[in-house]
Sequence to fold (85 residues):
Amino acid sequence: MLHGTLTTFRRRCGKPGCRCVGGEPHESPALTYTEDGRTKTLTLGAAEVAEVKAALARFESARADLEAQAREGVAALRARRGASK
Fold:
């Protein structure tokens, strides 16, 4: 499970004969995340992208489940308080 954002960096390397001079920049997949209030970046290999996507999806699914449980908890508390009046 991972918390962060999958992004793609596009950059030019600066070599005069490289294809990126003409327009097509180099692309690198990366995971950005926050640690101790600062944004951090991990550059990923092509083989890691699918694994990271799946881990991010698991986090979002777990977050959605927790939020649903929290809403149910508030509803239950309200119902108990309403029944006691």
